[in-house]
Amino acid sequence: MTRIFTLVEDYSGYESPFLAHHGVSFLIEGTRTILFDAGQKAFPLLYNMERLGRDPSTIDCVFLSHCHYDHTGGLLDVLRAINERIPVIAHSTVFRPHFSEKESENVGIPFGQEVVQEYCQLVLRDSPFEIMENVYSTGEIVHREGFETEALQNMRLYTLEKGNPVKDWLMDDMSIVMKTPEGLVIVTGCSHAGIVSIIDHAVSLMHEKRIKAVIGGFHLIEAGKEHIEKTVDALRARNVQGLYTGHCTGLRAEALFLDSWGEQFHKLHSGMVIEI
């Protein structure tokens, strides 16, 4: 059995003893233990780990889904708590400067590569590979659905090349896909590559059409009604069995997912444990 612990999420849950903040982090326990993203700050993550009876020293590696600060900001303090030079898996461009038109400061990972590699073994890989038995990094998502690409275009995100701003397509957006007897389980951070594109990539990568569950943020919080409806229709057409989502998904999208999936829709919250 694999267990996925929601270490931190935007929502703490009803009458919950757990802490929440803007960001996301999961602990995936199988034959090895993977920390998927590190939230915005380490304190809520480490506090919730203690409440869940999980010890940072058991973490075998860290997987960073993309560069954004709300997924990477807690990294250094978490690595200090682990106190071993474990692998940190990420895309080769994860340390680039990254800006939003809404923000005047870098909203990417808040640490330089030189600082991070003092505390870990960096594994910067853009292509898919097996992390542990039946658990894979998707690598970057090159082929993307048209309507999802258009949405990313409208986000107006930038990086720097030779000091000049250029469009940032967030090619570092990667997910984890797990192979189970009942189908694939996909864990995402923010799904900037597009949740439909991620699912299609995982199906092609694993040669498996059955999707048991998709877990994570779907980044539909600023999407229009048409985009959300296209996403719902696409996930239904792909026979996705279960949805566990929150963070950047947005209330309008969650309401439509609940309406379509019923009891197979689950709103993520800090402390939620998913058993696969």
Characterise this structure.
With 276 residues, the chain is of the alpha/beta class. It has helices at 42-51, 69-72, 75-82, 113-116, 146-154, 195-206, 225-237, 251-261; strands at 3-8, 25-29, 33-36, 61-63, 87-90, 99-100, 121-124, 129-132, 135-137, 157-161, 164-167, 176-180, 183-187, 211-217, 242-246, 265-267, 273-275. It has a single domain, classed as Metallo-beta-lactamase, Chain A. The strands form three sheets. A seven-stranded mixed β-sheet has the order 7-5-4-3-2-1-17. A seven-stranded mixed β-sheet has the order 8-9-12-13-14-15-16, covered by helices on one side. Strands 6-10-11 form a three-stranded antiparallel β-sheet. The protein starts with a strand and ends with a strand.
Per-chain topology:
Layout: E1 3-8, E2 25-29, E3 33-36, H1 42-51, E4 61-63, H2 69-72, H3 75-82, E5 87-90, E6 99-100, H4 113-116, E7 121-124, E8 129-132, E9 135-137, H5 146-154, E10 157-161, E11 164-167, E12 176-180, E13 183-187, H6 195-206, E14 211-217, H7 225-237, E15 242-246, H8 251-261, E16 265-267, E17 273-275
Parallel strand pairs: 3-4, 4-5, 5-7, 13-14, 14-15, 15-16
Antiparallel strand pairs: 1-2, 1-17, 2-3, 6-10, 8-9, 9-12, 10-11, 12-13
